[in-house]
Structures are given as C-alpha cells and as structure tokens.
Amino acid sequence: MKPTSITADRTQGTLTITWDDGSTSVLSFKVLSDMCPCAACSAERNNPDPLKVIRARSYELEAIHPVGGYAINIVWKDGCRYGIYSWDYLRMLARMVN
C-alpha cells in the first residue's frame, strides 16, 4: 500500500495521507512526533525507568522528505530529524488513533 498524496496542514497540525486503495488517514503532528521511530526517540519511549528524563517535544513540523519509495523522513523543529516513517508504520499509527 502506497500513498497517492501526502498533505501537511501546519495550521491544523495534521498530516493527511490518501492511499492507493482510496482510504485516507489523518495523523496529528503530536502523534507523529510522540511516536517518532528514530533510535533516540524509540529508546526514550521504551525506557522502563520510572525516573527517566523525557525531553520537551515540539510538534512543529520543519520539513518532510521522501525516502526511496517506501517512507518519508519528518524533520521536527525540536531537532529530531532522523525518523523514517515507512508506509506500513504510518498505516499502523492511523489504525491506532482512529
């Protein structure tokens, strides 16, 4: 499954993806940032230490870049720039929030 269009609405803070099966997913920037798949964010999210320090997150989008034909890279204004969001991962996130 691949997107036919991806639209970022900075005012609403949402990413809208239309898929080649005709379905549409709308993901908030908050969900996308909180679930960033990069190594640093994943380690922070999965750290079982109850006293862990969690960095302040920004939900402001800086840029989106294509990664081959299988993903996008989202760059956040808080400095996180290594998250590669595969099409499968984006579909999974959409199912979780909808």
Number of domains: 1
Instruction: Determine Rg (CA atoms, Å).
Output: 14 Å
| CATH fold call | NE0471 N-terminal domain-like
Global outline:
globular
Order of helices and strands: EEEHHEEEH
Strand content: 35-45%
- Uncertain segments are none
Name given to the CATH architecture = 2-Layer Sandwich
Cα-to-Cα separation, first versus last residue: 18 Å
Largest sheet: 3 strands, antiparallel
**Kindly state the mean pLDDT as a whole number?**
92
Strands, total number = 6
Please give the CATH class: Alpha Beta
Give me the side-by-side strand order of the main sheet: 1-2-3
Which class best fits the helix and strand makeup? alpha+beta
In DSSP terms (H or I, runs of 4 or more residues), the helix count works out at: 3
> What proportion of the residues is helical, as a percent range?
25-40%
